[in-house]
Specification:
alpha/beta; 18% helix; globular
């Protein structure tokens, strides 16, 4: 699907599922009993949460939860600023004829969802090696929710990993591919991505575990990787450019840089917190 250039900058507000880490926390690390849903339906209008340098951030009161006495929004809305049209032209790709293609990690969002692979890893569920494929609306920090929406606002093309899985040859139509935190991929996807000559691996820990799909049941199943089916198995594809450690755990990205591999470039940190506020980062990404 292609993203349409905004006609009036600042008029588009897009909802993004963000993780708590985006706002300074990681909800995956919190004990389940500490997380309380805010069921108060009184206010249903957006309130301003943050006035960032590049984008405004708004939240719905119903999407705010209480964690250890602090109010944390689970969902945010990014909005372009009308006075920054020149900046957006410099960091966006609105007018490029052959735009970069972003791969949206729905499979990874599914792996992290309730009754997903992480419930199996943690011992909560013995049958969760197969899990339902979630909708794109359920993206969060682990599945690059911020990046998906910010790059959309900046005019990038995108497809879901489901679309790529069904049509791997689609990558041949694009000069540059941007991979997000696509941690869980099929063999078709892995082969298509690693054979493309210009891939920007924007998140560490991509292409980490092999899965299979069943579109009749709308499920994915873990095949290999992430210490499965053997504890000694890390990367499910034995990929030579595996870069999970230590880069996945650097979420501040204070010293970010891209480095070369044979079919593109990799980033040395997890950019979910900076992609919505670092103008230089977005400009470099555009120019790679």
């Amino acid at each position: 699907m292609k993203f349409v250039k905004p006609v009036i900058l600042g008029s588009i507000a897009l909802v993004v599922i963000v993780s708590v880490f985006y706002f300074g926390f990681n909800i995956q690390d919190m004990p389940k009993q500490d997380i309380q849903n805010n069921s108060d339906p009184i206010n249903s209008e957006l309130i301003k949460w943050s006035d960032g340098m590049l984008f405004d951030v708004f939240v719905y009161p119903k999407d705010i939860v209480n964690i250890d006495g602090r109010q944390i929004p689970l969902k945010g809305t990014f909005k372009l600023k009308p006075n920054l049209s020149e900046t957006y032209s410099e960091i966006g790709v609105y007018d490029e004829k052959n735009k970069p293609l972003v791969i949206i990690p729905v499979y990874t969002a599914s792996a992290y969802s309730k009754n997903g692979f992480y419930d199996f890893y943690s011992g909560y569920c013995n049958t969760c090696l197969t899990t339902k494929i979630v909708s794109i609306d359920e993206l969060r920090e682990q599945s690059s929710a911020n990046a998906v929406k910010i790059l959309e606002l900046l005019g990038y093309d995108s497809i879901t990993d489901i679309e790529l899985d069904k049509n791997p040859d689609i990558l041949k139509k694009y000069d540059k591919i941007i991979l997000l935190h696509n941690e869980y991929v099929t063999k078709n996807m892995f082969d298509s991505i690693t054979s493309h000559p210009n891939v920007i691996y924007l998140y560490p820990n991509a292409l980490y575990a092999e899965i299979s799909t069943n579109f009749e049941d709308n499920t994915i199943s873990l095949i290999r990787g992430h210490n499965y089916p053997d504890e000694d198995i890390k990367n499910g594809f034995d990929w030579e450019f595996e870069n999970t450690h230590p880069y996945e755990y650097d979420k501040e990205c204070k010293n970010w840089e891209f480095y070369n591999i044979t079919n593109g470039k990799m980033l040395n940190c997890y950019p979910e917190q900076i992609i919505w506020k670092d103008e230089k980062f977005l400009k470099v990404l555009k120019e790679l």
